[in-house]
Design brief:
Strand content: 35-45%
Number of strands: 5
Helix content: 25-40%
Structural class: alpha+beta
Number of domains: 1
Length: 122
């Protein structure tokens, strides 16, 4: 019985670690989204995560929520600086949410000002 428990725990750790590694390193999709950056904030009680919101049109249906990994400090700083402006965000989508990295499956990896959106707004 003791051997069974040890093998079961090892098997569970191996499968769980493999699933986590697959989800972290193999994106489901990736691409760019453009719109007006509504907000970027650090949220959470025990685990703080960076969460943002992009408006891609008019109304609630056109709000896109995304997360930023804490290690992407340059992306976080740019998002803070670009709040309220038109931006393009390169993102990856993961298969599942990873709670200690963010509240969504979408993670911003790069952000640039959208020059076309800036001209329209001026």
């Amino acid at each position: 019985m003791k051997k069974f428990i040890i093998y079961f725990l090892l098997f569970t750790i191996l499968v769980g670690g493999s699933l986590y590694a697959f989800d972290y390193y193999v994106p489901y999709s990736e691409g760019w989204r453009a719109g007006k950056l509504i907000k970027i904030s650090k949220k959470g009680i025990l685990i703080k995560t960076w969460e943002g919101q992009l408006s891609t049109g008019i109304g609630q249906d056109h709000l896109w929520n995304f997360s930023v990994e804490p290690k992407d400090k340059l992306v976080i700083q740019k998002l803070i600086d670009y709040q309220g402006k038109g931006v393009k965000i390169r993102y990856i989508e993961r298969f599942w949410k990873i709670p200690w990295l963010g509240d969504t499956k979408y993670f911003a990896k790069e952000v640039v000002l959208d020059r076309d959106a800036e001209q329209i707004g001026d």
